[in-house]
């Protein structure tokens, strides 16, 4: 979710002053004036049922969702007990979604004050593809078709510490009501026109940036790989020269972001491989050159690192980061010969920052 949310751009029911519409605010008001009747917008029937169920849980209440995280009648979906499930209506007995299958769900989601911030009558996604918040990624595979369940999600399983402007505050827990409408086999990759491949690849890369900014680097990596899969997928027609150039640019961005995520996960060899893949497409990509030089220096491959960093400096002579890397490398190479100084672990290069000169961000820096 938003980045992308369960409902894409969820609407929010509001009343006077922009305040969220909550329970009991669906009254019809008539003024005693000749031939005049003013009707307030009614809350949809499913939302009315939703709020009744919230009231049965004593939500909203003075303690917000806090008491529900310790209440009976809920099952914990994670070891940290920050994502909980409560079945509202049992399913029809069909099988739970299997990995790779596509699901369609109806989603409503509320804040602790009862404000509705998610509403999607039919959200379709493949669990594990990283297109929705973790509460749905982890919760929906536990459901049966026809089932209605609550998912109580602390901020790591909702919108994280940053929240989602303008309607989800930072570190906000959310309560989702989810109805599993349909489960079907995942669609086979269909040939797409180049413009559609570019659009899908960009969406998945931005979703990866959303996860990266929130510190979920494994989910970010999955999204970047799915973006590459979309960019490299079957096409209905060969791309034109401009489209091919843009496809290559998008591939390089995704590979650089893969390298950044791999580094955050402590996988240096995989990060180096992603840099080299980016450079095979774009040999003069400054970001990939700098990160590859840093990684080679960290491994003690000083001669290779120096060549790569000098090439990066030729492309960006004003870069203070590259100058600093070359200076540290030169000092290490010029140190007095000794067993300790020859051991690359004795005076290691600083760990490369995952996004040098800047990590991928939710704004899509790369």
Automatic annotation (TrEMBL):
Q: Please state what class of enzyme this protein is.
A: isomerase
Q: Which residues form the signal peptide?
A: none
Print the keywords alphabetically. Isomerase, Repeat, Rotamase, TPR repeat
Q: Name one GO cellular component term.
A: endomembrane system
The reply to whether Repeat figures as a keyword in the UniProt entry is yes
State where composition is biased (Pro residues).
349-360
- Describe the reaction catalysed, as an equation: [protein]-peptidylproline (omega=180) = [protein]-peptidylproline (omega=0)
User: Where are the stretches annotated Disordered?
Assistant: 1-29, 327-366
Q: Could you tell me which residues the TPR repeats occupy? A: 286-319
Q: InterPro entries, from UniProt?
A: FKBP4/5/8-like (IPR050754), PPIase_dom_sf (IPR046357), PPIase_FKBP_dom (IPR001179), TPR-like_helical_dom_sf (IPR011990), TPR_rpt (IPR019734)
Instruction: Please state every residue range assigned to the domain named PPIase FKBP-type.
Output: 100-184
What PANTHER family is this protein classified in? PEPTIDYLPROLYL ISOMERASE (PTHR46512:SF2)
Task: Name it.
Answer: peptidylprolyl isomerase
């Amino acid at each position: 979710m938003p980045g992308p949310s369960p409902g894409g751009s969820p609407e929010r029911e509001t009343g006077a002053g922009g305040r969220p519409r909550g329970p009991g605010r669906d009254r019809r008001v008539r003024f005693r004036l000749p031939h005049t009747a003013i009707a307030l917008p009614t809350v949809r029937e499913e939302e009315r049922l939703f709020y009744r169920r919230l009231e049965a849980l004593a939500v909203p209440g003075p303690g917000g969702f806090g008491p529900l995280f310790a209440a009976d009648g809920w099952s914990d979906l994670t070891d940290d007990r920050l994502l909980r499930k409560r079945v509202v209506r049992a399913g029809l007995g069909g099988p739970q979604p299997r990995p790779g299958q596509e699901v369609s769900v109806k989603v409503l989601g509320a804040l602790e004050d009862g404000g509705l911030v998610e509403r999607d009558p039919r959200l379709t996604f493949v669990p594990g593809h990283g297109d929705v918040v973790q509460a749905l990624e982890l919760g929906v595979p536990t459901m049966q078709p026809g089932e209605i369940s609550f998912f109580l999600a602390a901020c790591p399983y909702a919108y994280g510490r940053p929240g989602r402007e303008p309607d989800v505050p930072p570190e906000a827990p959310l309560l989702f009501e989810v109805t599993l409408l349909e489960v079907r086999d995942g669609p086979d990759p269909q040939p797409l026109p180049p413009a559609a491949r570019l659009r899908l690849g960009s969406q998945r890369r931005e979703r990866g940036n959303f996860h990266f900014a929130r510190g979920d680097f494994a989910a970010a990596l999955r999204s970047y790989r799915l973006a590459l899969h979309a960019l490299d997928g079957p096409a209905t027609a060969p791309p034109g020269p401009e489209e091919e150039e843009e496809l290559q640019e998008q591939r390089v961005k995704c590979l650089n972001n893969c390298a950044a995520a791999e580094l955050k996960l402590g996988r240096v060899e995989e990060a180096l491989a992603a840099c080299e893949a980016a450079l095979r497409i774009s040999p003069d990509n400054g970001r990939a050159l700098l990160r590859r030089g840093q990684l080679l220096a960290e491994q003690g491959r000083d001669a290779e690192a120096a060549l790569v960093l000098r090439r990066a400096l030729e492309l960006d002579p004003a870069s203070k980061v590259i100058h600093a890397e070359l200076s540290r490398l030169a000092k290490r190479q010029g140190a007095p010969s000794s067993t300790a100084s020859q051991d690359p672990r004795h005076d290691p290069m600083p760990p490369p920052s995952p996004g040098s000169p800047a990590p991928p961000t939710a704004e899509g820096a790369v």
